Amino acid sequence: MHALEIVTLSKRYLGKRLKRVDALQDLSLEVRTGEVFGFLGPNGAGKSTTIKTVMGQIKPTAGHASIFGRPATESSSRLRVGYLPENPSFYEFLTGREYLHFVGKTFSLNNSMITEQSEHVLELLELTHAADRPIKGYSKGMVQRLGLAQAMLHDPDLYVLDEPMSGLDPLGRALVKEIIKNLKKQGKTIFFSTHITADIEVVCDRVGIIAKGRLMAVDTVENILQSGVEGYQIQVSRHGHVEELLVAKDRLKEFMAELVTSDAVVERIEPKRKDMEAFFLDIVSKEKHSAQ
Ligand SMILES: Nc1ncnc2c1ncn2[C@@H]1O[C@H](COP(=O)(O)OP(=O)(O)OP(=O)(O)O)[C@@H](O)[C@H]1O
Question: Which residue intervals of 160-220 are DSSP H helices?
Fold first, then answer.
């Protein structure tokens, strides 16, 4: 059983002047229990539409989703989810601590549990110092961190996070990545959307790439990075003289054969890989050209 399963999900919005927007087209994917799955796509690709559909905020035109084997449409299945919406906004007249209390009540936690968990998540998200100030005075990054704090409050098994690093400075981004890694260590499942490839490389086990409402690729981060080997940086020494050479992938065999017959010694070989950004740009630009 998967933590999250999305089956042939489609969503058609009626936009301005009743213009149809096919935001999702036959999108299927599964998120395995215990993994960190990055949902990567450019602006307008359909990431938030997917997430809002899973969380029951919008109705799909077709298809369905399940959470730990139960229909996502049942509110009881969503009790196991910690959800961070895109651009979270809260009752600004409440303090951070009061807001967490309110969230705890909606999850039917008892008062001592709420107090204990609130202290824990406030500390994790470095918000303890601001806990008794009204949210109105929080910076954008603090609001985002409070968004993650409220998602963690009831210690859910699955996290669905829409752009969790958005609006955060480098320190905040590093903090959230560390939290995601720790949640994985605790056996939690994390599904998060982003358009920033560097976020994926550091924390994800697998990545799904979405463009124009369609899922273009799903693979492990490891496979993607391995498959992107374009050539080799080779250091050779000859009579005490060291040289750095860049050899194309398809020239390696030939190059090594030549080396054997020469008096050069290989000191180091390092594969030169396309990074996640190049892989992502390739996929997205292919989709752009095929649509033209
Ligand atoms: N309520 C709506 N009415 C009409 N069109 C919509 C609505 N919400 C989203 N869309 C359109 O659906 C498509 C997918 O939007 P969505 O917000 O899901 O993308 P996204 O990948 O989350 O983008 P971003 O990274 O910019 O947040 C876009 O073309 C968007 O304009």
Answer: 170-185, 197-203
